[in-house]
Amino acid sequence: MNKIESANQLNGFLNGIVKHAGLKLKYRITVDPAIADDRDWERPDILVEFAGPDSSLLLARGAELLRAMELLAMEMLHLPGNEHEKISFDCMGHRKARLEELRMSARVAAEKVRQSGTPYHFAPMSSRERRIVHLALRDEHDLMTESTGEGLRRSVVLYPKEDGARSRSRQP
Fold it and tell me: E-assigned strands of the chain?
């Protein structure tokens, strides 16, 4: 992926969306953004940050419109699934807040699994968010994570280490 060319294509794409949808938004496209501590688990090649009076529209319903625009941008750039982390869209710090929410959920789930000894099933989430959960729990040596399900129903399951190993050994 040529980052500068991709950033220019993104600019044209987003300019059309913002203009034709009548959105009161501005955006900034940064190639190779400096990574702050709160973005240590996401290292995009291109970061698009939105702001403006219509920011709330992007963030409504769990940032559904923001995520949809990000997905359309990836499709427009013909990025394969394993390169989706190269582009990141954000609006008013939403991604940072979601990252912290996922980290906190992972910590709470870890304690529940330790106390109950039973697996914890997270709600379905995107591949990017599942990756964050897996990374948040990678140092929990008594626990293990596994993605399960298909498509939009794919989620993370957190197991006590011995329970997860038993359940996987029974699968064909």
Answer: 26-31, 46-51, 87-91, 120-121, 143-148, 155-160
